[in-house]
Amino acid sequence: MNTRLLPTLVTALLCGGLVSKPLPMQAETPQEWVALGQRVHGAFGSYIALGIRIGLDALQRLHAQRTEVKVTYQSGPKAPCPCVADGIMLATIATPGRGTLRVMAAPSSQPVFGIATITDMKTEQTLRYVIPASAQAFLDRCNQYSPIKRYWAVMKADPSSLYRVTPLRPTKSTKTAPPKSHPLAHAQVQPSR
Predict the structure, then answer these.
(1) What share of residues in the chain are helix, strand, coil (percent, to 5)?
(2) Strands (E), the chain
(3) Rama region for 155: left / alpha / beta (φ>0; ψ in -120 to 50; rest)
(4) pLDDT tens digits, residue range 8-32?
(5) CA–CA gap between residue 87 and residue 108 (Å, rounded)
(6) Are 98 and 70 in contact (CB under 8 A)?
(7) Contacts for 62 with CB less than 8 Å, ≥ 6 apart
(8) Whole-model pTM above 0.70?
(9) To 5 degrees, how large is the angle CA 124–CA 127–CA 133?
């Protein structure tokens, strides 16, 4: 074998392996969520953290796997941006390109910060997350912290101050409830008002 070609062959095989192997999208640590949010969104703010929390909560409640849900997001009339949708996208891997994430162009007429509707594509069970307008003050304060502290502030906040969850199309499921040790297992479904 020609020894001058060996480095080229090794480089080609390594690069080929990197290109053909998909990059993992599931972040498991807070640092990975922050890095992923910065890479995909351009920065990691508290709105991204809230979207991640909502996405993870929905997957747990629906007993769904990532890529098994579709999402519709609508900002409230005073929300500065639909950044929450990017966080939900990161957590669920629902994307516009796959047709599983849709961000409404017109803001909601309701006095809310945002509304996320998340549906399990297999069972059609749907959850509606309403983010109250009052959550914006807390989220904006969190943006004064470092990205990792923003993440933790949102993840540790009382869920009832961040969102209300309403099941829209409950279906019978044979799946079991998530273990009580799950970090979001304490969140309760709130009845619609």
Answers:
(1) 40, 15, 45
(2) 69-75, 101-103, 112-120, 126-132, 164-167
(3) alpha
(4) 333 333 333 333 333 344 557 999 9
(5) 19
(6) no
(7) 69, 118, 120, 123, 125, 127
(8) yes
(9) 155
Rounded mean pLDDT of the chain? Answer: 82
Q: Are 85 and 100 in contact (CB under 8 A)?
A: no
**β-pair partners for 60:** none
Residue 189 has which token pair?
């479904």
How many residues belong to the chain? 193
64: left (phi over 0), alpha (psi -120 to 50) or beta: beta
Of 16, 37, 62, the C-alpha closest to 170 is: 62
Q: Give me the mean pLDDT over the 47-71 stretch.
A: 97
Could you tell me if 87 and 51 are in contact, meaning their C-beta atoms sit under 8 angstroms apart?
Answer: yes
> For residue 13, what is the enclosing H or E element?
helix 6-20
Q: What is the pLDDT of residue 171?
A: 52
DSSP state of 108: P
CB 97 within 8 A of CB 109: no
